[in-house]
Amino acid sequence: MASLQTIQKIGPILDLFTVERPEWGVREVATAVGIPRSSAHAVLASLVQTGLLHCRARGRYRIGWRVVELAEALRGSVDVRSCAAPHLERLVDRFGETTHLAVLERGQVLYLDKVPGTHNISVQGAQVGSRRHAHCTAVGKALLARLSDQELSRIVDQEPLRRFTPSTVTDPSRLRTELDRCRSTGYAMDLGESVHEVHCVAAPIRDDLGSVVAAVSMSVPSSRFRLRRDEMARAVLDTTRAVSRSLVDVAADTAPSRSLQEATDAYGSAS
Asked: Where is the IclR-ED domain (predicted)?
């Protein structure tokens, strides 16, 4: 059985494998994570055995196919991406602006899906599978606002909040004030806090138990956002409510012991 220390190394090592850098060697992993080369090799070998990594020629490692199987298992249990997809498309059809679906994973925003905007000049947005800091994005704030005080403190108080633009909120007290506003209005905004001249609005998605499981955001050049800010906020709210209702319907179809009315009541009481 793997020791606790070995298990604690697995997360940081898997975090190294990204779209931008999908391949790593033992020495590179050891240097990046700050562990002995022998320890890095042992963890990499274990991950190869489980199928999470694949060892190529000359000791180079990439993500393994086991990840695809796990992704399908996740899709079968929480199908938020499939439920959200048509609603994201409709939001883009209406406004022509880039939309994202994201979750909060280990204190950071993880992007699950994206529909690019249709304007000649549109926000490129985040890549699917990429991560960003939660405190400086609308979708991150929408997700942070639903955490308990203890959970929020673990994310925003452990280390200084990084500044990305002059507008980035780096004061935890001010961030908490913004999150209070998000709870009151139902949506969050990012006014050029992650990328200069890009404004975003986001709202949370709830499952059949009323828990926030994801969020939808729309990313807009600041000049266009100012003209339709309130309209866009209402549209994103309507979109996330529609996705939440879709999740309730799916849950009712897959769990006969729980009625649609019970699931709907759980969603409504948490809204």
From this structure: 66-253
pLDDT in tens, 218-265: 999 999 999 999 999 999 999 999 999 998 887 776 654 444 455 445
* Distance, CA of 92 to CA of 114 (rounded, Å): 10
DSSP per-residue codes, 56-93: -GGGEEEE-THHHHHHHHHHHH--HHHHHHHHHHHHHH
Mean pLDDT (the chain, rounded):
88
Q: Where are the chain's structural domains?
A: 4-68, 78-270
CA distance 61 to 195: 33
> Domain 4-68 belongs to what topology?
Arc Repressor Mutant, subunit A (1.10.10)
What does the block give as tokens for 169?
């909120």
Instruction: Provide CB contacts within 8 A for 258, sequence distance 6+.
Output: 208, 251, 252
Instruction: Of 77-81, 133-137, 175-179, give the lowest mean pLDDT range.
Output: 77-81
Amino acid (1-letter code) at residue 92: V
Q: Which of 206, 189, 202, 217 is nearest to 243 (CA)?
A: 206
Strand runs labelled E in the chain:
24-25, 53-55, 60-63, 98-105, 108-115, 131-133, 188-191, 198-206, 212-221
Is the Cβ–Cβ distance between 200 and 218 less than 8 Å?
Answer: yes
| CA atoms of 59 and 230, how far apart (whole Å) | 54
